[in-house]
Amino acid sequence: MAIPRPGKPVRGSQSGAPIMAAFDLLGRRWAMGIIWNLSSGPATFRGLQAACETISPSILNRRLKDLREARLVERTLDGYQLTESGSALFRHLHPLGDWAIGWARLVADEEE
């Protein structure tokens, strides 16, 4: 299975909008967990597997392949690390994280 490509229909969108292709890629199982764990620096395959706790070796291998094909992760002598583009993505996730905290409060307030 190839990575989602801007300009092509992706899961949840026929438009091919780049943001939808990115959401499709990042919504794959463990993609964000791998990016999160690599944000603090390079990690070996075994190190990533330990950091991601419940990830299977086959899923980790597949996600690393996807993220490498998407040019968000690269392999180095130290293991795997975020590319410049992967690091930029991670920096852009901080505002989304801030929004998510507010959203979580809103949803929790509605449940009470």
UniProtKB/TrEMBL annotation:
InterPro entries: ArsR-like_HTH, HTH_HxlR, WH-like_DNA-bd_sf, WH_DNA-bd_sf. GO terms for biological process: regulation of DNA-templated transcription. It holds the Pfam family HxlR. SUPFAM superfamilies: Winged helix' DNA-binding domain. Keywords: DNA-binding, Transcription, Transcription regulation. One of its GO terms (molecular function) is DNA binding. Residues 17-108 form the HTH hxlR-type domain. This is Transcriptional regulator, HxlR family. It comes from Desulfofustis glycolicus DSM 9705.
